[in-house]
Amino acid sequence: MSQARAFAQDSADSPDSTSEVIQGIVVREPEPHAERAVEPGHELALVSSPALDRHPVAVYLASLAPGSRRCMRTALNLVARTLSGGRCDALSLDWARLRYGHTAALRSALAEKYAPASVNQALAALKGVLKAAWRLELMDDRDYARAVDVPGVKNQVPPRGRAALSGELRALFAVCSDGTPLGARDAALLALAYGCGLRRAEVVALERADYDEETGSLLVRRGKGNKARTVYVAGGAGEAVGAWLRLRGDIEGALLWPVLKGGKLTSRRLSAQTVRDVLEKRTRQAGLKSLSPHDLRRTFISDLLEAGADISTVQKLAGHASVSTTTRYDRRGEHAKKKASGLLHVPFVESGSRSK
């Protein structure tokens, strides 16, 4: 079993009780919640559960975009079990009692068992909950600063995923150009995923009102971390989305709809899994090597950098919090470094050439 699969399997073994916390914290007028007794089985176990608006896990998860909550809840359950010897989950651990000794030991324990990406995800979730505990005044400044002072694990393996070649992109769109409503919908979906570099959850969250066909601006309301950004649907991407809209019409609701048998459109939202399914189907039809939706995002970033866009602009279009994240998506390889080196002019003239 791979480390990533083991990570998911470990997390699946724990109760999904944190979903109840999310449901309670995000409603506008939550009903009063009585304190829930917790059997003390470990020194870090809560004696009793606080109200949801005072629980750092609930507050942290509610601050995330819907698409991020599940994986971070999974990571928090793993952290809680690791710290408590399997006796606590994310909801029953007393996070405010964690100190540097706990978090440093946690990092070492996870690094021995899981891939760097999984460990870093768990540490990011941990730090998010500790920040919530600090903001709720459950931890003082000194204890919080020391507890989060643990570095990530360096990833020394080759980066995951790949960038699609230009010929592969042409083949993908070619198999969608079959004159059917489904083909038009799939072409628009792929155009948004590649042409705007959108994540799966961002693609399916788009509303018709988010897209201004005249200017090409597209408001991505539900980006990672609930951050909104504006991107632009240009060139062929705009043509693909325009062709879909001529079939869909200007009815309010989700930008992309399911297409039933016989080409009938139904006014409801796609699931994030549909994006993956569409790409797998079209990749297979085009006879291409496997591509994931995130590979289209990697291609978007790599192609923009190859075309000369500055990395700060690409970072903003991709919705990354830092430039360092954007650089990890660059799949241009050695030819990009060679090309960049050739941009410089070194004013060297061989001595014998000066007299000529």
How many strand units? 2
Q: Taking strands numbered 1, 2, ... along the chain, how are they ordered across the largest sheet?
A: 1-2
The helix count comes to 16
CATH fold label of the largest domain: hpI Integrase, Chain A
Q: Low-confidence segments, ≥5 residues, pLDDT <50? A: 1-40
Describe the main β-sheet briefly: 2 strands, antiparallel
In CATH terms, the superfamily of the largest domain is: Intergrase catalytic core
Distance between the termini: 70 Å
Q: What's the SSE pattern?
A: HHHHHHHHHHEEHHHHHH
Q: Estimate percent helicity.
A: 40-55%
Question: How many structural units, i.e. domains?
Answer: 2
Supply the helix-strand structural class: mainly alpha
Query: What is the averaged pLDDT score?
Result: 86
- The radius of gyration over CA amounts to 24 Å
Q: What's the shape?
A: globular
Q: Strand share of the residues?
A: under 5%
In the CATH hierarchy, the architecture of the largest domain is Orthogonal Bundle
The CATH top-level class label of the largest domain: Mainly Alpha
Characterise this structure:
With 356 residues, the chain is mostly helical. The protein has 16 helices and two strands. It has helices spanning 3-12, 18-26, 56-62, 66-84, 100-113, 116-135, 141-147, 166-176, 181-195, 200-205, 235-248, 272-286, 293-306, 311-318, 323-327, 334-341; strands at residues 217-220, 229-232. It has a two-stranded antiparallel sheet with strand order 1-2. Residues 1-40 have low confidence and may be disordered.
